[in-house]
Design goal:
The chain has 68 residues and is α+β, with helices and mostly antiparallel strands. It has four helices and three strands; from the N terminus they run αααβββα.
């Protein structure tokens, strides 16, 4: 994962890699994520997983910086 982070050319890709890594969400959950689903204060986001089940996942401070 560190090799992917080091090869990121822009902040968007870095934010994607960091979010996938720190939260453990699936790629399909990431593609359906909306900005209003992200709570920057709590460093969490609501994702809809398999079977359209909603769950809250958390990410780290580094990911928060890249997402903002």
């Amino acid at each position: 994962m560190e090799k992917l982070r080091n090869n990121c050319k822009n902040i968007r890709n870095l934010a994607i890699i960091d979010l996938l890594n720190s939260s453990g969400i699936r790629i399909s959950e990431l593609t359906n994520l909306k900005i209003e689903d992200i709570n920057f204060e709590n460093k969490s986001c609501v994702v809809f997983g398999k079977g359209k089940k909603m769950r809250e996942v958390y990410f780290d401070g580094k990911t928060k910086l890249h997402l903002e």
